[in-house]
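forwarding from the other thread:

> can someone predict this with zinc ion?

sure thing
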Amino acid sequence: MNLFDTHTHLDEPVFDKDRIECVHAAYRHCVRRVMLVGYKASHFERVTLAAKQIESAKRRVVAIPKVHMAFGLHPAFISQHTQQDLTSLKNYLGAADALGEIGLDRYTLALQDKQSFCKQLDFFRTQLDMAQDFSKPVLLHIRKAHAEALREIKDLSFNQGGIAHSFSGGEQEAIAFAELGFKLGVTTQITNPNARKLIRAVQAVGIKNLVIETDSPDMLPMQLHERGKLNRNEPKNLCRALVSLAQILRIDLEELADVLWKNSFEGLKINTQSESRPGALHS
Ligand SMILES: [Zn+2]
């Protein structure tokens, strides 16, 4: 069984002490590919270094997933982004498989502020244009702004697709994103039986339009939350999302894993045959 963790932040300092052990553990839990996602220009180099560290460890530890990278300017950090950051982003895109995470976020009062949301829209449009120019799919972060995000994607005739990461919209929005060529990113939140909105969205779009992700170190699976011991999520927990999803969709685990694996490559426009090229990482 092969799994693709389509959204991780393994570059976070919380993984500095045991990053290699962590990806090795993920490999033992069937994770064969991981997508490292940058969200702030000041962290792009950190993402690159983490990816290089993992790739170079392959010489010692064979059982390690292949790493992919994405870079983008995240809407929740909008107050920190500058025009210079957009230039920096362009310089990193050559080594990236996707542009993200980008999007619109209305979760907090500060983000709902008119000025903040205008800047979010401005950066979202610019980054969608950039992804279109570079023919890259995008990783979308959208909270409480699904209708607006859909409108922007349509208005700009953006057609590179990608992943609507950690999807939190409703059934109709889920279907609309799928129709625009996006896969829905399902996190380990799906392990929570009370996540009814997510369960309905997943059932509405069906197996062909889904991928899974841990968003680690965030989104601790429910069972681990309850134990209260762990303070971070890890790529090895990805199989928990798979198991819950298989139960919800009433489908065989291996069959589901196979479809999700193919969906990940399709959504990220990655050639299944592509081999690791550490030299291609940004230096
Ligand atoms: Zn993220």
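Residues 211 and 263 are 6 Å apart (CA to CA). thats all i got for now
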